[in-house]
Design brief:
The complex is a heterodimer of chains A (395) and B (290).
Chain A lengths: L4 H10 L7 E4 L2 H15 L4 E5 L12 E4 L2 H11 L3 E2 L9 E2 L3 E5 L10 E10 L4 E7 L6 H7 L4 E5 L7 H10 L4 H20 L2 E11 L5 E3 L3 E4 L8 H4 L9 H8 L3 E4 L4 E5 L2 H13 L6 E4 L6 H12 L6 E8 L4 H15 L6 E7 L2 H10 L5 E3 L2 H12 L1
Parallel strand pairs in A: 14-16, 16-17, 17-18
Antiparallel strand pairs in A: 1-6, 2-3, 2-6, 4-5, 7-8, 7-10, 8-9, 10-11, 10-12, 13-15
Helix pairs in contact in A: 2-3, 5-6, 8-10, 10-11, 11-12
Chain B lengths: L10 E4 L4 H13 L3 E5 L7 E2 L2 E4 L2 H8 L3 E4 L3 H13 L4 E4 L6 H11 L6 E3 L5 E4 L3 E4 L8 E8 L2 H13 L4 E6 L10 H9 L6 E7 L4 H12 L4 E6 L23 H10 L3 E2 L6 H9 L1
Parallel strand pairs in B: 1-2, 1-5, 2-4, 5-6, 6-7, 10-11, 10-12, 12-13, 13-14
Antiparallel strand pairs in B: 3-4, 8-9, 8-11
Helix pairs in contact in B: 3-4, 5-9, 6-7, 7-8
The chains are: A alpha+beta (395), B alpha/beta (290).
Chain lengths: 395, 290
C-alpha cells in the first residue's frame, strides 16, 4: 500500500527521524493557516507547497512551489489544489490534487554548502535480507543514476537482527559527511531502519535527504510502501489508505476479491491463477491482440466473481473481445461453466465476442454446459484453440 | 527414483483440522500419500480423518517418525509454523500459505540457516508431487502421470497446464516442484534444478518462471556450466507493465534485468529451449526427448 508524502513523514517522525515541520491542507484557507503556524513555530518566512499525490516527479509537473510570503502561499495553494498534475509517473491523464503539504523551507542559505543525498531501504530478494541503497547524488531519479553511473550507488546489506551502528557510521562516511551532519546522519539512519521494521514497510525511499547550510539532516521527501500482507497487524496504518489515488476499476476488483491490473490493450481476459493470467496475456499478444488487463479470479471462480470480472472489463470501451481461461484443478470446470452462464445472464447483453477456454477437471462437461446454454460465445479446450480464436476475432 | 517426496515419505499436516487442511489432507490421502497425522495446537489427543492430532510438530515427529510437513495455516502464523517444523527436525517443509509478510520470511530464512537438514518449499506454492507415490500439496493429482520429466514452477495453475500438456503427449513426470510465487522462497529455481539434474530418473526438466527477481537466469547460468539434461524454459509476463505486481508478490518488474524478455534471452544464451507461448511448452519437451 502506497502512502502520501505527509503520511510517510508522520510515520518517520514517530520513530525520531528528522523531518521538516509540515501540516497537510485540504483547501486554501487551511493552507494559509498552516503556513502561518509553521512560520511562527520555526521562525522561517519560506514554506514549500507540495501536491500530495501517489506519484514521483511532482516538481517537474508544477506540483511543488516555494512561497516567501502568505500571499504566495495563497496563490500557489489556489494553483495546485484541484489541478490535474501530470508527471513522468502519472501517465498522460495525470492525477487530481486533493491535498497539499505546507512545509518549513529547509533550503535556506547559511555557513556551509547544501547537499542533496539519497537513501532507501528495500528487500534484496536474492539473499532474502533488507538492504540500504544510498548515494551522494540525491534529488534525481535513482534509476537514471543506477544506469548511468552505478559506481555512485552504495549498498549495505542488513542482517536480520538489525542495522548495526557501525553500518550507520559507514553510510554517513560514504555520504561524505562530517561533524554535526555526520552524527545527525547516523541517528537518521538508525531511526529510518526503526520506522521500516516497526511499520512492516516493503520499501522506504528518502529522495532527497538534505544536509542544510546549518549541517542539519532532514528527510526532504519521503515515500513509504507498506507490505500489504502485514497490514492485518497494523490497523492504524490501514486507515491511511487513499482510494482516490487508485484506479477505480482496481478498487472495485479488490472489493470483489479479484486481483486486477488495468492495461492499455483491446482484449480483456479473466483467468484463474496469477501465473496463468500472465501467460494468457502473453498469448493474446502472440495472437495479434493486446491485453487490456490482468485479472486473476482466484481458486473459486463462481457466478458472482465472474459477473464482477465481466463488469470491470467492460468498463473499458477499448475492449473488443474477452478471453476466459480456466484450468480446473480443485475447481471443477462444470461448476465454473455454470457460473459463467449465470454471470452472462445476470449482465444481460455482453457487446463483445467472448472466448471461453475450459481445461482440467470436468472440462468436457463444462464445455457442454456452455455450448448448450445458447450463449453466443466461442469455446475452446486447448490453449492453441483459444489462441486461434483470439487471432480470428482480432483480425 | 524421484526427488523430495516418495511413497516412503511420512507426512504430517500443520493446520490439520482447519477447512483447508482437512480438505487437502483428505485429497492427499485419497491419492495414496502416506499421511501419518497432523498438528493443531490445543487439539492434541484428538483423532481427525482417522489420524492422530498433535499439539506440536515435535510431538508428531516423536510419535509418528514424520519427515515431511505440509503447512496450511493462515499467513500471519505460517512463518512460525515453518520454524517449528524445522526445529522439530522435519526434512521437507512445503508451505502452501499465501500472503506471509516479507519481514516474517526474512526471519524464517535466517533461522533456517541453523537447520541445514531442513528444506523449505514455498511459501505461496502448490507443493510437491511425485506422481504415483506422494502428493504433498494442493495440485489436482489426476492430471499427473508417473514418468521422467521434472517440472519446476513459481505458479500453481501454470504447472497444472504444463503437466496436463505433458501427460496428454504421453510424457509422465518424475517430480513436480512448486517453488512458490513470493519474493523470498525456501528453494530457489537453481536449487530445484540441481535436485532434478542429480536424479537419474529425470530425463528432462521444465522451468516455469515469471517476471521479477533473477532466479531463472541464476539457474540458466548454472545449467550452462553443469547441465546434463535437456531443459525447456518459459517466463510468464512478457506483456506485464513495469512496477506493477501481477498477482504473485514476487511477480513485479523492478529493473531492466528482471523482465521476461531479458530472462528469456539469457536462458537461450545458456542453451535452454525457451518457448514464448505456454501452448507450446509440452510439445517443446516432447521434441527434445524424441
Amino acid at each position: 500500500m502506497n502512502l502520501h508524502e505527509y503520511q510517510s513523514k508522520e510515520i518517520l517522525r514517530k520513530s525520531g527521524t528528522h523531518v521538516p515541520e509540515g501540516i497537510v491542507a485540504l483547501n486554501v484557507d487551511e493552507a494559509v493557516n498552516a503556513a502561518k503556524t509553521i512560520m511562527e513555530k520555526t521562525g522561517t518566512d519560506t514554506v514549500a507547497i507540495k501536491a500530495q499525490v501517489h506519484a514521483g516527479g511532482r516538481g517537474k509537473g508544477g506540483g511543488v512551489k516555494i512561497a516567501k510570503s502568505i500571499e504566495d502561499v495563497k496563490k500557489f495553494a489556489e494553483e495546485i489544489l484541484g489541478m490535474t498534475l501530470i508527471t513522468p509517473q502519472t501517465g498522460p491523464h495525470g492525477k487530481l490534487v486533493r491535498k497539499v503539504l505546507i512545509e518549513e523551507g529547509i533550503y535556506q542559505p547559511g555557513p556551509s554548502e547544501i547537499k542533496e543525498l539519497y537513501v532507501s531501504i528495500l528487500l534484496n530478494r536474492t539473499i532474502g535480507r533488507y538492504m540500504v541503497v544510498y548515494s551522494r547524488q540525491g534529488g534525481m531519479d535513482i534509476e537514471t543514476i543506477a544506469s548511468e553511473t552505478p559506481n555512485l550507488i552504495f549498498k549495505e546489506e542488513i542482517h536480520p537482527v538489525g542495522l548495526q551502528a557501525y553500518q550507520a557510521r559507514k553510510i554517513a562516511f560514504n555520504l561524505g559527511l562530517s561533524g554535526k551532519a555526520f552524527s545527525q546522519m547516523v541517528k537518521f539512519m538508525m531511526s529510518l531502519y526503526d520506522a521500516f521494521i516497526k511499520n512492516d514497510l516493503a520499501q522506504l525511499e528518502i529522495n532527497p535527504v538534505v544536509k542544510t547550510a546549518n549541517d542539519d539532516i532532514f528527510a526532504a521527501d519521503a515515500k513509504c510502501i507498506i507490505d500489504d500482507n502485514a497490514l492485518c497487524r497494523h490497523p492504524d496504518l490501514v486507515e491511511l489508505r487513499d482510494i482516490y489515488e487508485e484506479a477505480p476499476a482496481e478498487v472495485e476488483a479488490g472489493e470483489n476479491n479479484l486481483n486486477f491490473v488495468k492495461l492499455d490493450g483491446n482484449v480483456g481476459c479473466m483467468v484463474n491463477g496469477a501465473g496463468l493470467a500472465m501467460a494468457t496475456m502473453d498469448i493474446i499478444k502472440l495472437s495479434g491482440g493486446d491485453p487490456a488487463n490482468f485479472l486473476d479470479v482466484g481458486g473459486s471462480a463462481n457466478a458472482k466473481s465472474v459477473a464482477a470480472g465481466f463488469r470491470i472489463i467492460l468498463e473499458d470501451p477499448n475492449v473488443k473481445a474477452i478471453l476466459i481461461n480456466i484450468f480446473g484443478g480443485i475447481v471443477r470446470c462444470d461448476r465454473v461453466a455454470t457460473g459463467i452462464v449465470d454471470a452472462y445472464n445476470e449482465i444481460g447483453n455482453i457487446p463483445v465476442p467472448v472466448i471461453i477456454r475450459l481445461q482440467g477437471t470436468n472440462a468436457m462437461e463444462g464445455k457442454k454446459i456452455i455450448d448448450e446454454s445458447g450463449l453466443k460465445v466461442y469455446t475452446a479446450v486447448t490453449l492453441e484453440e483459444a489462441a486461434a480464436l483470439v487471432r480470428k476475432i482480432v483480425d | 527414483m524421484s526427488v523430495l517426496v516418495n511413497k516412503n515419505s511420512r507426512v504430517i499436516v500443520q493446520g490439520f483440522t482447519g477447512s483447508e487442511g482437512t480438505f487437502h489432507a483428505s485429497q492427499m490421502i485419497e491419492y495414496g500419500t502416506n499421511v501419518v497425522g497432523g498438528v493443531t495446537p490445543g487439539k492434541g489427543g484428538q483423532t481427525h480423518l482417522n489420524l492422530p492430532v498433535f499439539n506440536t510438530v515435535l510431538d508428531a515427529v516423536e510419535a509418528t517418525g514424520a519427515d515431511v510437513s505440509v503447512i496450511f495455516v493462515p499467513p500471519v502464523y505460517a512463518a512460525d509454523g515453518i520454524i517449528e517444523a524445522a526445529a522439530a527436525g522435519i526434512k521437507l517443509v512445503a508451505c502452501i500459505s499465501e500472503g506471509i509478510p516479507v519481514a516474517d520470511m526474512v526471519r524464517v530464512k535466517h533461522i533456517l540457516s541453523d537447520h541445514p537438514e531442513t528444506r523449505l518449499i514455498g511459501p505461496n506454492c502448490p507443493g510437491v508431487i511425485t506422481p504415483g507415490e506422494a502428493k504433498v500439496g494442493i495440485m489436482p493429482g489426476f492430471i499427473h502421470k508417473k514418468g521422467h520429466v521434472g517440472v519446476i514452477s513459481r505458479s500453481g495453475t501454470l504447472s497444472y497446464e504444463t503437466v496436463d500438456q505433458l501427460t496428454k503427449l504421453g510424457l509422465g513426470q518424475s517430480t513436480c516442484i512448486g517453488i512458490g510465487g513470493d519474493q523470498i522462497i525456501g528453494t530457489p529455481t537453481v536449487e530445484a534444478v540441481k535436485l532434478l539434474m542429480n536424479d537419474p530418473d529425470t530425463h528432462g526438466i521444465i522451468i516455469i518462471g515469471e517476471i521479477g527477481g533473477s532466479m531463472e537466469t541464476d539457474a540458466a547460468r548454472w545449467i550452462k556450466e553443469y547441465g546434463t539434461k535437456p531443459v525447456v524454459g518459459f517466463i510468464a509476463g512478457q506483456t506485464a507493465p513495469k512496477g506493477r505486481r501481477m498477482g504473485h508478490a514476487g511477480a513485479i518488474i523492478g529493473g531492466s534485468a528482471d523482465t521476461a524478455a531479458a530472462k528469456m534471452k539469457i536462458m537461450r544464451e545458456c542453451g535452454l529451449t525457451v518457448v514464448e507461448s505456454l501452448a507450446d511448452i509440452g510439445k517443446a519437451m516432447y521434441d527434445l526427448l524424441n
